[in-house]
C-alpha cells in the first residue's frame, strides 16, 4: 500500500484541479456508416451583456430549434465566408446556470444553448441572434465549442450544473456536505495520519465546484499506477439487513449494474467533454448515471440531453408537441362545491402524514430503506403506490392503474388514468352553450410527482420525506378524494408517480414522449415536487417556476391557489428542474408546485435525514398544496358528481 502525506495528496489534487484540459477525456469519434448522418454538438451561451435578459421567457426545444435554424441561415447569407448554414439543426435546448455565488451577489445567471448540427457545418465565428417577433426580442448567442461525433449508443450525454441553493443553506450545512463525496474519501484514504487526513479534506472542501470537477474527471490522475496502491471505494452503511437495497436492477443483458464506487476506475464510466465555471458536459454509462450522487459534488443537478437518434424520433413524431403558442385558460371563479370537496378528510393533515411516514419508513417497515430508482426498494415502493391508488380508484368509472415499464434498469412509473365520462362531456358542452363560453382546447389533465429518492453519501437510507415523498403523498391524496366522491370528468385525467427523476427526469421523459407518440393532447401537466418544507419563521407558502414552464399555465394554477388556499403565500422559485420540464419540452403546457419562494432551503435536501418529523416540515402546507392540485383537476378537467 502506497501512503502519501495528507498535504502532498491534496496538493497533487489541487494541481490537477487547476490546469487540466476539459476535453482531454473526450472519446474518439466513432466510425459511422456511409449513409448515416454525422452530428456535432454545438455549445453556445449568452454573452455577459445579454445575461440581464437572457432566455426569459424560455423557449421549448421545437421553437428554439426553428429560431436557431433561421438565425444560422441569416448569418450564412450575410457572412458566407465565415459562417456556413448547417444542412439540419436537431434539438436545441436551453440550460440555465444559477449557482449560489451568483445569486448572493445579485449577478445575472448565465444561460447555455445546446444543439445538434450537421458535422462541421457550423463555425464558431457565426454571429447568431435569436429574433422573436412576439414579443419583439433579440437574444445574441456566442458559440463556445463544437464537439464532433461524440454520440455513443451505450452512453448518456449529461448536462451538469451547480444547483441554485439559498445562501442560508450554505451556511447551515458544512462545506463537506456539498463537496464530492468520492473526492473527500479518496483524499482521506491517502494517509494513515488522522490529522493530515482532516487537513486534506478541509483543503478539498474549499475548492470551487469547477476545481472538484477537474480533479475528478479532467484527466488520468486516479488510474492505478501499481498493484500496491490503495483502492478506496465508497462504504455503504445501513441499519437494514436487506443488502439488495444496494444492488441495482438487471440491465438489458440480464446482468447486474454495479455502483461506481472506485475513484480509480471512474474514468472508465464518465468522460468530461466540456467544463465551465458552474457547469459541465459529461458522457456517462448506465452505472455512472445511476450512482452520480457518489462522485459529483453534492450541490449538482443533472439534465439528460437527447441523442440525435432520440431527437430525430421526437422531431418526426406526429403529435401536438411543437406548438409554441401560450394556451389560454379561463379566469377561475370561486365555487362553494369545489371548496367543500377540498375540505375532505381524505387529505387531512393526519391522513397525509400516514402516507408520508410509510414512504419514509418512520412509522412502519414497508420493506424498503431507499426508493432509489434502480434498487429493489424503488420497485417495492412503486408496487405499494400502485396498490394504494388502485384501492382508491376501484369504484371510479373509467379508472385504470398500471406500472409503466420503460427501462429494465429503472423502477417503473406508476400511472392511473381516468377516462372522460360521455355524460360529463355532453354536460360540459351544454354548459358552454348556455353561458356562451368559448370552447376550450382539447387535452387531458395530468398531475404528477416522483417517488424515487436520494440520500447522504455512504448511507443506503434515502427516506426522501420532502423530496419527493411530499409530492407522492399529494398524488395519493388526490386519488383518494376522486374515489371518495366517485368523480366523473369531461377530460381524461392522469395521475402519475414518476421514477428516475433524480437521474435526470428519465421516467417523465419516457412518459411525455409516449403521450406524444400516441398523439395525445395535453391541456395541462402539473408536477408536485418538494411541497412540505419552509424555514422556521416563514409562513406556509407555495412557489411556481419562473422558467422552463408554460407561463399561462403557471398563472392559472397560481390564481387557483390564491382563490382556494389564501393562507399560502404564493410566489416564484429559482430552483430547477423537475418532471414538468419533460412535458414542457415536448410542447405540452406544464408547470410546477414547489414549497418555497426563492431557492432551495431545506437542510435535508438529498440527505438521509430527509424525514417528516423535523423542524420546518409542515403538513398544513402540504395539505394546502394538495388542495391546489385537486382544485386544478376539478376546474380544468370539469368534474361532475
From TrEMBL:
Residues 1-25 form the signal peptide. Keywords: Hydrolase, Metal-binding, Protease, Signal, Zinc. The keyword Hydrolase applies. Residues 435-618 form the Peptidase M28 domain. GO terms for biological process: proteolysis. The keyword Protease applies. Belongs to the peptidase M28 family. M28B subfamily. This is Peptide hydrolase.
Amino acid at each position: 500500500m502506497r501512503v502519501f502525506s495528507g498535504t502532498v495528496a491534496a496538493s497533487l489534487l489541487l494541481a490537477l484541479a487547476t490546469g487540466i484540459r476539459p476535453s482531454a477525456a473526450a472519446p474518439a469519434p466513432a466510425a459511422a456508416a456511409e449513409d448515416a448522418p454525422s452530428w456535432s454538438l454545438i455549445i453556445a451561451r449568452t454573452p455577459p451583456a445579454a445575461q440581464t435578459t437572457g432566455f426569459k421567457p424560455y423557449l421549448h426545444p421545437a421553437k428554439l430549434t426553428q429560431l436557431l435554424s433561421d438565425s444560422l441561415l441569416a448569418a450564412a447569407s450575410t457572412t458566407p465566408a465565415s459562417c456556413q448554414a448547417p444542412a439540419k439543426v436537431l434539438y436545441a435546448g436551453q440550460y440555465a446556470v444559477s449557482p449560489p455565488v451568483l445569486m448572493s451577489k445579485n449577478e445575472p445567471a448565465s444561460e447555455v444553448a445546446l444543439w445538434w448540427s450537421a458535422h462541421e457545418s457550423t463555425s464558431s465565428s457565426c454571429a447568431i441572434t435569436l429574433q422573436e417577433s412576439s414579443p419583439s426580442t433579440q437574444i445574441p448567442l456566442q458559440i463556445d465549442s463544437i464537439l464532433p461525433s461524440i454520440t455513443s449508443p451505450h452512453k448518456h450525454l449529461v448536462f451538469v450544473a451547480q444547483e441554485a441553493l439559498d445562501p442560508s443553506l450554505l451556511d447551515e450545512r458544512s462545506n463537506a456536505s456539498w463537496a464530492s463525496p468520492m473526492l473527500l474519501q479518496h483524499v482521506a484514504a491517502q494517509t494513515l495520519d488522522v490529522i493530515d487526513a482532516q487537513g486534506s479534506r478541509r483543503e478539498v472542501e474549499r475548492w470551487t465546484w469547477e476545481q472538484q470537477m477537474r480533479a475528478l474527471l479532467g484527466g488520468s490522475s486516479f488510474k492505478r499506477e501499481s498493484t500496491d496502491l490503495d483502492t478506496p471505494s465508497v462504504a455503504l452503511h445501513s441499519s437494514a439487513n436487506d443488502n439488495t437495497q444496494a444492488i441495482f436492477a438487471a440491465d438489458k443483458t440480464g446482468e447486474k449494474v454495479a455502483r461506481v464506487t472506485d475513484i480509480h476506475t471512474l474514468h472508465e464510466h464518465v468522460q468530461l467533454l466540456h467544463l465551465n465555471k458552474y457547469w459541465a458536459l459529461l458522457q456517462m454509462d448506465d452505472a455512472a448515471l445511476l450512482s452520480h450522487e457518489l462522485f459529483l459534488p453534492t450541490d449538482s443537478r443533472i439534465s439528460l440531453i437527447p441523442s440525435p437518434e432520440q431527437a430525430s424520433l421526437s422531431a418526426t413524431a406526429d403529435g401536438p408537441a411543437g406548438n409554441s403558442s401560450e394556451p389560454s385558460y379561463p379566469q377561475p371563479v370561486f365555487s362553494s362545491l369545489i371548496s367543500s370537496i377540498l375540505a375532505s378528510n381524505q387529505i387531512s393533515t393526519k391522513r397525509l402524514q400516514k402516507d408520508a411516514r410509510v414512504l419514509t419508513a418512520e412509522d412502519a417497515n414497508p420493506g424498503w430503506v431507499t426508493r432509489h430508482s434502480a434498487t429493489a426498494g424503488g420497485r417495492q415502493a412503486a408496487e405499494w403506490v400502485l396498490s394504494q391508488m388502485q384501492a382508491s380508484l376501484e369504484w371510479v368509472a373509467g379508472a385504470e392503474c398500471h406500472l409503466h415499464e420503460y427501462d429494465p434498469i429503472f423502477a417503473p412509473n406508476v400511472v392511473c388514468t381516468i377516462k372522460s365520462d360521455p355524460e360529463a362531456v355532453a354536460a360540459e358542452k351544454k354548459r358552454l352553450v348556455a353561458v356562451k363560453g368559448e370552447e376550450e382546447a382539447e387535452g387531458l389533465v395530468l398531475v404528477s410527482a416522483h417517488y424515487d429518492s436520494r440520500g447522504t453519501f455512504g448511507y443506503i437510507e434515502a427516506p426522501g420525506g420532502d423530496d419527493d415523498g411530499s409530492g407522492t403523498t399529494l398524488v395519493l391524496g388526490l386519488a383518494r378524494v376522486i374515489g371518495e366522491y366517485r368523480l366523473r370528468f369531461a377530460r381524461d385525467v392522469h395521475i402519475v408517480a414518476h421514477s428516475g427523476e433524480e437521474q435526470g427526469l428519465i421516467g417523465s421523459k419516457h412518459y411525455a414522449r409516449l403521450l406524444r407518440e400516441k398523439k395525445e393532447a395535453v391541456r395541462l401537466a402539473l408536477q408536485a415536487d418538494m411541497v412540505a418544507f419552509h424555514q422556521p419563521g416563514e409562513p406556509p407558502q407555495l412557489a411556481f417556476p419562473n422558467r422552463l414552464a408554460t407561463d399561462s399555465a403557471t398563472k392559472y394554477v397560481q390564481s387557483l391557489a390564491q382563490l382556494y388556499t389564501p393562507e399560502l403565500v404564493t410566489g416564484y422559485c429559482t430552483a430547477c428542474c423537475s418532471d414538468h420540464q419533460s412535458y414542457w419540452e415536448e410542447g405540452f403546457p406544464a408547470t410546477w408546485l414547489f414549497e418555497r419562494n426563492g431557492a432551495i432551503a431545506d437542510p435535508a435536501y438529498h440527505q438521509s435525514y430527509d424525514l417528516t418529523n423535523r423542524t420546518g416540515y409542515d403538513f398544513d402546507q402540504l395539505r394546502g398544496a394538495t388542495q391546489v392540485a385537486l382544485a386544478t383537476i376539478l376546474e380544468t378537467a370539469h368534474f361532475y358528481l
